[in-house]
Write a structure and sequence with these properties.
The complex is a heterodimer. Chain A is α+β, with helices and mostly antiparallel strands. Chain A folds into 2 domains: 77 residues, Ubiquitin-like (UB roll), CATH 3.10.20; 69 residues, DNA polymerase, domain 1, CATH 1.10.150. In chain A, 34% of the residues lie in helices and 16% in strands. A 5-stranded mixed β-sheet of chain A has the order 2-1-5-3-4, with helices on both faces. Chain B contains 18 helices and 32 strands. Classes of the chains: A alpha+beta, B alpha+beta. Bound molecules: FE2/S2 (inorganic) cluster (2 copies). One FE2/S2 (inorganic) cluster binds next to loops of chain A.
């Protein structure tokens, strides 16, 4: 077992993990943050995407021990107690959620994109979104939702 | 839009109300199976056969048991004298019992991925480590991987049966075998490739045995929890009341999830065996190996037409590569291929024989539009070929042969065994085709067809379909007035990621004439209602929704009676308003006050006839002859579902289904080698559609011709978007090459299509 200290959703935490424990397993099972989902565990589908120091990272391919000193944000950290963020609200409005299993990884990925590129056009949104697999929606509603949510990121400090 | 404030005469039904479940799913607050935990949890991992066909001589578990943290190893020997088998749930036949899958291999393995042993350990990692230490001794036999080898019966999967042909289904109508003098006949061999649902959430189960109350509680059930409970109770020798199936959030179903699989016995058995809660979460490779596969059919069919272009007959044979066992719903696809070959067209004579053949591959089951995707590919290809040969425009050819409203109810071929007669119930098939063509701007685009523009050939395709829905036998709902003035609604239908919660709440709020907030919806668990039939065959909305309407009718009557007794008037005179029951004299009781009387209503909706949603697809493709790459420039799906409950959610389902269909046309292929090894065991080699693949998919959903089944008038949707995609795209590709390239086989991956283009010169 190894001790790792890092920040999760703004809170400092310390966990003892086996060196082989992935960040996804650590978040889900050690820290109880089950909003991060694992759908392939081999880095292809993006379901497990979290933000590490602001960058979208596949938590199934990242080891928890690598997180020493890092700031991790999960879907729980991008959500408020009662309402929806503008990005989440746009997903709901456009019908971009079906089973919802891919959703947390897609929200984190698109949040990271719009934070750095609030003017991303459809081609760019699709390009980045293509790193995440959704089996239910066919992506049309998601793309519309992300394009609409851009407004909320424009003018915000990147 | 947000749920509007209601007035009397609610109309949530028909509105694109934002989904209730999104609030939790978007914030990571969903509860999926792997999110459930228990103190003292034990983790299961499953040793699976690495050999496609062979005698299992033994399993050595000594080294695994010696690993610290390993709790137990379960093999067939642990089960005692007889290993239970998984019965067929749909279209069962006694003579198929020898082909049922045992829950764990005992003496023979018949596909790569078949469970041989279960390891229980203190962590998932230790359980996986222990798998490496288990040694299964298997004496390999020659594998049967394709239908031709299976038919030859040289190697048998079940020696005692003497054949690999599990069953022959026949679709029969009229005199298709007759001579049709002077008629046009086109005969073709075609095939569709093995692929499947591949939901984003893999399967998983958490089972716990409560020794004091003697109750086995299982999280992770879905689709048909009541049927699964019945099967498990029998296998475990427990009364059904000792088993509780609990459905949590579900990451996609598409016909695959929730059928009874070996693990549905093994995990509960393990929990009872070791006396601790047991969790098993499938990994992606296991998922691709172990979940029902689908779609592997080949055919040799003849279409007979008059010279004027009237379809006279459809006949021939179809082979289904069903995999190693006859699983719970394996019968559906081969029966449907026979049933739906004629589709929405008037075909007076049909004789199609469908052979369900056993092979050393993963067993098969339903995948969205089972048998219909395959049948539509075969039929719509034949229609275009025939129209071209006869010199008739392919739209005019379809218009001529689509079943007309005046011809309904129109009998389909009768499929046996078991014998079931089916009729097309209602609809304006020509209208949906015309609408699809208009949406695509067919006439304006026709001049592009067959043209080479900027290095790519352009083509248009059209295909029509019917979707089955609303399968019986019945569904139950119970509604209760709760003491806080809300209304609790319980149904046996299940969720499987389709927005059921919202749709059912819309229906219930309209019937109760209250706001959607007043409705509490509970579903999918065996503890809520006495029976339920689940979510398959596009049935949840029609069946569950109709049962809710009946239950609410009864509850409202009880409410009037209870109010009348307390307010001193006649029950008929009581007016129910949102939150209140009002007497003519002005006296009133709140729903919360009424609830103290313990009021509820039960509804049972029975149905034995299918209702058919229907529609048409049209598309425009551009094919690069140098690479074989096909761009789907535009794709339009039109479907009449009888009555739309939530248009936005429905459109989303249709678009999603079209894209799944495109995955099946271009990308998805479960490839096996000659030894019966699955070569596509990860998302790196089993490709699913991504956001850059298809950019213009449009759905036009409508509710025009209501279904004859039930008070709701809905026909059931959820599968239609996938059904005609193969035929529609392949027709467009053929048209792009002016008929010189004729795709008869899926998938149309770039390399395969390129080879076809090269061969055509
Ligand atoms: S679960 Fe991490 S990329 Fe699929
Ligand atoms: S909504 Fe089901 S996988 Fe995306």
């Amino acid at each position: 077992m190894r001790d790792v200290a890092f920040e999760v959703n703004g809170k400092a935490c310390r966990v003892a993990v086996e060196p082989r424990t992935t960040l996804a397993d650590c978040l889900r099972h050690d820290l109880g943050l089950t909003g991060t989902h694992v759908a392939c565990a081999h880095g292809v589908c993006g379901a497990c995407t979290v933000l590490v120091d602001g960058e979208a990272v596949r938590s199934c391919l990242t080891l928890a021990v690598q997180m020493e000193g890092a700031a991790v944000t999960t879907i729980e950290g991008l959500s408020s107690e009662d309402g929806l963020s503008p990005l989440q609200a746009a997903f709901r409005k456009h019908g971009a959620v079906q089973c919802g299993f891919c959703t947390p990884g897609i929200i984190t990925t698109m949040h990271a994109l719009l934070t750095t590129e609030p003017h991303a056009d459809e081609a760019r949104v699709r390009e980045v979104l293509s790193g995440n697999i959704c089996r239910c929606t066919g992506y049309m509603a998601m793309v519309a939702a992300v394009l609409e949510a851009r407004a909320a990121y424009q003018g915000a400090p990147a | 839009m947000n749920a509007p404030l209601r007035g009397p005469g609610n109309n949530f039904v028909g509105q694109s109300v934002e989904r209730l479940e999104d609030m939790r799913l978007l914030r990571g607050q969903g509860l999926f199976t792997d999110d459930v935990s228990r103190p003292g949890l034990v983790h299961a991992a499953i040793l699976r056969s690495t050999v496609a066909h062979g005698w299992l001589r033994g399993v050595d578990s000594a080294a695994a048991l010696a690993l610290p943290g390993v709790v137990a190893v379960i093999t067939a020997a642990t089960m005692g004298a007889k290993v239970p088998a998984i019965p067929m749930r749909l279209a069962p036949l006694d003579e198929l019992e020898p082909y049922w899958q045992p829950v764990i291999a005992a003496d023979k393995v018949r596909y790569v991925g078949e469970p041989i042993a279960v390891v229980l350990a203190e962590s998932a990692a230790i359980a996986e480590d222990a798998l490496e230490l288990l040694v299964a001794e298997i004496e390999a036999l020659p594998p049967v991987v394709d239908t031709a080898t299976a038919l030859a019966d040289g190697t048998l999967l079940f020696e005692a049966q003497g054949t690999n042909l599990a069953v022959l289904y026949t679709a029969q109508k009229g005199e298709a075998q007759a001579e049709f003098p002077g008629a046009y006949v086109r005969r073709e061999k075609m095939d569709t490739q093995r692929h499947t649902a591949t939901t984003m959430e893999t399967r998983g189960l958490l089972a716990e045995w409560d020794a004091t109350t003697e109750v086995l509680r299982i999280h992770g059930a879905s689709k048909v929890p009541f049927a699964s409970r019945g099967m498990l109770a029998k296998q475990m020798g427990l009364p059904e009341t000792s088993i509780e199936m609990i459905e949590v959030d579900v990451g996609g179903g598409f016909g695959m999830r929730g059928e009874f699989y070996p693990e549905d016995f093994l995990v509960p058995f393990a929990a009872k065996h070791c006396g601790r809660p047991v969790k098993w979460i499938e990994d992606r490779r296991e998922h691709l190996l172990a979940c029902n596969h689908a779609r592997e059919f080949d055919c040799d069919l003849e279409l007979v037409c008059s010279r004027e272009g009237d379809i006279l007959a459809l006949r021939g044979t179809v082979n289904g590569n069903m995999g190693a066992y006859m699983r719970a719903n394996v019968a559906v696809a081969p029966r449907n291929v026979g049933q739906f070959l004629s589709g929405p067209y008037a075909v007076p004579n049909v004789h199609v024989e469908v052979r369900a053949l056993l092979t050393n591959k993963t067993p098969t089951g339903t995948y969205r539009g089972p048998g219909r995707f395959e049948a539509d590919f075969f039929r719509e290809r034949l229609l275009d070929l025939a129209a071209d040969d006869l010199g008739i425009d392919r739209v005019a050819f379809r218009r001529r042969n689509l079943v007309k409203m005046a011809e309904m109810p129109y009998p389909l071929a009768t499929v046996t065994p078991p014998k079931k007669e089916e009729k097309l119930d209602s609809g304006d098939y020509v209208m949906t085709m015309d609408l699809a063509l208009a949406e695509l701007d067919w006439d304006a685009k026709l001049p592009l067809q067959g043209k080479l523009i900027d290095g790519r050939y352009h083509g248009l395709g059209v295909a029509c379909f019917i979707e089955g829905g609303a399968a019986g036998p019945r569904e139950r709902a119970r509604v209760e007035l709760v003491e806080d003035g809300t209304v609790a609604v319980y149904v046996g239908s299940t969720l499987v990621g389709q927005g059921l919660e919202t749709v059912m709440t819309q229906i219930a709020a309209d019937a109760m004439e209250c706001s959607m907030d007043t409705i509490r919806f509970f579903h999918g668990s065996t503890t809520y209602v006495s029976e339920g039939f689940g979510s398959f065959h596009s049935r949840s909305t029609v069946m569950g929704g109709s049962a809710i309407l009946l239950a609410i009718e009864e509850l409202r009557q009880r409410m009037r009676e209870a109010a009348a007794a307390r307010l001193g008037c006649k029950a008929e005179a009581v007016r129910l308003e949102e939150g209140r029951a009002v007497a003519p004299g002005g006296g009133a009781l709140s729903w919360a006050e009424l609830a103290t009387a313990g009021l509820s209503g039960d509804g049972v909706f029975h149905n034995h006839t299918h209702t058919y949603a229907y529609g048409a697809h049209a598309c425009h493709v551009a094919v690069d002859p140098r690479s074989g790459h096909v761009e789907v420039v535009d794709y339009v799906a039109v479907e009449d579902v009888g009555r739309m409950i939530n248009p936005l959610a429905l459109q989303g389902q249709i678009v999603g289904a079209v894209v799944q269909g495109l995955g099946g046309v271009f990308l998805e292929h479960l490839v096996y080698d000659a030894e019966g090894q699955l070569l596509t065991g990860s998302f790196a080699d089993y490709l699913l559609p991504t956001a850059t693949d298809y950019r213009s998919i449009r759905a036009v959903a409508m509710g025009v011709h209501t279904g004859a089944v039930g008070p709701l008038g809905a026909k059931g949707a959820g599968e239609g978007g996938i059904i005609p995609v193969g035929g529609c795209i392949a027709n467009a590709v053929a048209a792009a090459f002016s008929g010189k390239v004729q795709p008869m086989s899926l998938p149309l991956s770039p390399s395969r299509l390129w080879a076809m283009i090269e061969a055509a010169g």
